[in-house]
Write a structure and sequence with these properties.
This protein has a single domain, classed as Rossmann fold. The two termini are 34 Å apart. With 171 residues, it is mainly alpha-helical. β3 and β4 form a beta hairpin. The longest helix has 22 residues.
């Protein structure tokens, strides 16, 4: 059995936290500003918040490795998926043992959201992210971004050790 696991690069790990919060705002379950929502009255991160909890990849990977072997996972750098979708797709095809079918012609840059769209055939409509994806993210102050980076750093180190690969998130 194969398991696919998408893992974001460092910058996107912080952005993943922001993205989770932006989704909650979109759904009406949160109100901005993000820094007020994710810190307590003393300025400490509220690490019990889903937007933060769900970005601690080592916690989830440790659980999954109780049931699956590491070689059953393909760890994808989401930044690579965004900037070079063909490379990430080719890596996925290879991992799954599929014949290489996807080419550069299958990707069309979507100007409206800034991500690539997929086009199955030249005469077909491109498939892009729906309205729930690619939302505007709230601005982070440098101090708050640094706070998030510092918080995630020890989790990242444990994740690197667990999977045997340094994704460079702590740089």
């Amino acid at each position: 059995m194969l398991v696919y696991c998408k893992i974001c690069d460092f910058l996107l790990q912080v952005v993943r936290t922001v993205s989770h919060f932006a989704m909650q705002v979109f759904l009406g379950t949160r109100q901005p500003p993000i820094e007020k929502a994710l810190t307590d009255k003393n300025g400490r991160l509220r690490t019990d918040q889903d937007a933060i909890k769900h970005s601690r990849y080592v916690v989830y990977m440790r659980h999954w490795l109780k049931y699956f072997k590491l070689k059953q996972f393909l760890l994808i750098d989401t930044n690579n998926m965004i900037t070079n979708p063909l490379n990430a797709t080719t890596e996925t095809e290879k991992f799954l043992g599929l014949e290489h079918k996807i080419t550069e012609d299958n990707f069309v840059y979507g100007e409206n959201k800034g991500f690539y769209c997929f086009k199955l055939h030249p005469n077909t409509t491109r498939i892009c992210m729906d309205k729930k994806k690619g939302r505007h993210h709230p601005h982070l102050t440098p101090a708050f971004e640094r706070k998030l980076r510092n918080y995630f750093a020890p989790f990242n180190k444990r994740f690197y050790k667990l999977v045997g690969r340094d994704f460079g998130w702590n740089k």
